[in-house]
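Shipment paperwork, digital attachment
Item: protein structure file
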Amino acid sequence: MIDEKIFPFLAEKGHVISLVGGGGKTTLMYNLAAHCARKGWRVLAATTTHIMQPPGGVWAQTDAELFRLWKCGSYAVAGTAAHGGKLTAPPQAQLERWMTLADIVLIEADGAKRMPCKAPAAHEPVLLPQCDTVLAVAGLSALRHPLREVCFRAELAAELLCVPQDAQLTPELLAKLLASEAGGRKAVGDRSFYAVLNQADTKEQAALARQIADILKNIYRISCVTSHFEKGERA
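Attachment content:
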């Protein structure tokens, strides 16, 4: 369930929102897209890297497919077919033109190999100039496990956090990773920024999420949102 009280930018048309990090970016993107589509908006989702091809026939490759999906009240996913049942970025000219037609745009801007958290490589994230809002996502399932087991590019995360790769990921370390300009906030600049803690599936995880949110707010002055998706809502 998406709540516009915690995602206030969803109340306004015209935003270009990039999702970075790990722990359920694609699920979050599609749920945000579906929420906006239910309001009758023209919603475009895409990637600047790679995502799995979406289920449900929402992949648009032509203008006709794009407008058919919007007319039916669905969001549309733009992308070019890639190996392994994935999509990669659509042609730049097509993406930019479709973005001008949409009421809101959601873009997955890096990859995490389905791991709950990550540190960005030198070439990541791929944020478009039009992007005005960045969501850095992490999965709470990463907590209390060694970095090397739960973090994509663990060697970079260990260097950023000044800990060994065998160090357990604590709430303090995850908050630091999300808040760092070499981590979740990389290349954000003056864009609006939110940390999103996904997988708040149990009371214990929800309590840990509140702890991380307090750290992000009080130490780093960063807004934090907690999310949970049922099995049928997950990508």
